[in-house]
Specification:
The chain is an all-alpha fold. It has one domain. It contains seven helices and no strands. The longest helix is centred in the middle third of the chain and has 33 residues.
Length: 218
């Protein structure tokens, strides 16, 4: 990469982390998500109630992706004992917790709209609360001045707990992989689009938090 290209990249990165860049980015993503949720196809059984499911799944998937990213960073932290990587993992972990919690709360909305009530004792809801609780404990541990490698190890534990929970939790009200098995390609792409947009929003939150953090420390 040439010096000119490096300068251009640095300027783009600086603008993205600036208040103006962040406002534009969040505004664009908010409008895009709203439009996609509005235009996304309805489902034969749920009708327009499907929009609440798009919202719920997009947020939950983004939270899971964040936990996975934090876990991978944790693996690097465990290997390299790198405080800077741990700082990134901590930020990604908090953002993942936020999106996962929003996904859980939106599941109540989806449940109320499509099932006529909120069933907190439903196994998938209990599983989600357990994963979120473990993740929050790990995040709190990560904020303490403890051995850095232990933080990296625990971030990988969050991913392991989620995988174990996903494989062992019985399905009562939740259908089994309805997205991948759906006969509607439009519905599948709508879920994918919502997930991508929420993931970009999560990445932008991480950029904003790290930019503010570095600015304060600087």
């Amino acid at each position: 990469m040439s010096k000119h290209e490096e300068t251009k990249t640095q300027r783009s990165w600086k603008f993205l982390r600036s208040p103006a860049g962040l406002v534009r980015g969040f505004t664009f993503l908010a409008v895009a998500i709203a439009l996609l949720l509005w235009l996304a196809p309805a489902e034969k059984t749920l009708g327009t109630g499907m929009r609440s499911v798009y919202l719920h799944v997009g947020l939950i998937w983004t939270g899971i992706a964040g936990f996975t990213a934090s876990g991978l960073l944790g693996l690097l932290v465990l290997w390299r004992d790198d405080a800077r990587l741990d700082s990134w993992a901590q930020t990604v972990g908090w953002v993942a917790c936020g999106f996962f919690a929003a996904g859980f709360l939106s599941s109540m909305l989806a449940s109320s709209i499509n099932w006529g009530g909120v069933f907190l004792a439903e196994p998938r809801n209990v599983s989600a609360l357990m994963v979120l609780s473990v993740a929050l404990i790990v995040q709190i541990w990560g904020s303490w001045p403890v051995w850095i490698r232990s933080k990296g190890l625990l971030r990988m534990v969050v991913v392991s707990v989620f995988v174990w929970s996903d494989l062992t939790t019985p399905l009562v009200l939740h259908p089994d992989d309805p997205i991948r098995t759906s006969t509607s390609v439009a519905i599948q792409y709508a879920f994918l689009g919502v997930f991508v947009l929420f993931s970009l929003a999560a990445a932008l939150v991480v950029v904003a938090v790290k930019g503010w953090d570095e600015g304060v420390k600087g």
